[in-house]
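Hi support team,

I submitted a single chain yesterday and got back a structure, but I'm not sure I'm reading the token output correctly. Could someone confirm the output below corresponds to the sequence I sent? I've pasted both exactly as they appear in my results page.

Thanks,
R.
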Amino acid sequence: MNRHETALQMIHEGIVIPATPLALDKNRQFDAKRQKFLTGYFLEAGAGGIATAVHSTQFEIRRPEYNLFEPVLSSVAEAIDEYEKETGRVIVRVCGACGKKEQAVAEAKLAKKYGYDAVLLSPGGLSDLSEDELIERAEAVAKEMPVIGFYLQIAVGGRHLSYNFWSRFCEIDNVVAIKCASFNRYSTIDVVRAAALSSRADKITLYTGNDDNIVADLLTPYRFTVDGKTYEKRFEGGLLGHWSVWTKAVVDMFPRLQRADATPELMTLAAEITDSNAAVFDTANNFAGCIPGIHEILYRQGLLETTLCLNPNEVLSKGQAEEIDRVYKMYPHLNDDAFAKDYAARNAWKLK
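Hi R., thanks for writing in. Yes, this is the structure output for that exact sequence:
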């Protein structure tokens, strides 16, 4: 298999894919060296793939006043190129694609130019489109690149999508996976049922993006009986903003969770991870500090220079830093501070 075919096989098998943040300097300017440095952390931590230009990378990178979509794609691709040459490992490259059909197709073409393996097709900001139009958009993008579907939670710009939508989506050739990040049990089951009953069920891999329910998603065998026949589908991997922090601990933990049986110990771990996510993602304030929360941890570890976002109003919420302090103390086994700080010290020369 060539590199791209290997990457698609890895997507199919299920891997750890952090959804990466955007590296800015203290002047709120894009720092390409720091972006590559941060990418290196995820790679050394053992992530199987990298997703960029996604929600945690800040959708604002596409705005004309910033014009950062292509620079981000280029920097991340360059870091992965260098790592693959040094190690011989193949790293799955996922690029977010947003906007209406024309924009999403153009972004997919640019992702292909930089060697990405699949696009994560966001429905964000498209509440004016019908489900028929969203299907047409997905079909157009799938002609350019393998597509990972995306059920984005409503609180950060997503919308309700029906079971019928997902049934139709699963039948699109070149849809290789779906990331479910609806943060809702009912809609999650809609996605799983649609994939399980699809004629392409064996070609579509489910990735959890439900940061509130990561472990339970990975441990659950979903079963659906139709006309006496039972169909089973599981989440095989994760593509998560939450996994862009404490990534080494996530990679070490993942083999215990993938296709595993639920035990009391693992269900306790599930609750601990959900509680930690609540602090990082700022659920107390309806996710207002979600991206700054990610930045805060990476800043404390020396991986980011600042917690700044492109939007100056996007900052930690009142009390959020204290909540992050709490989960650090309560669940010390979940962080990878020692690894991250060692990585930052060993690779500081790359920032000069």
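A quick pointer for reading it: DSSP finds 13 helices and ten strands in the chain. Let us know if anything else looks off.

Best,
Support desk
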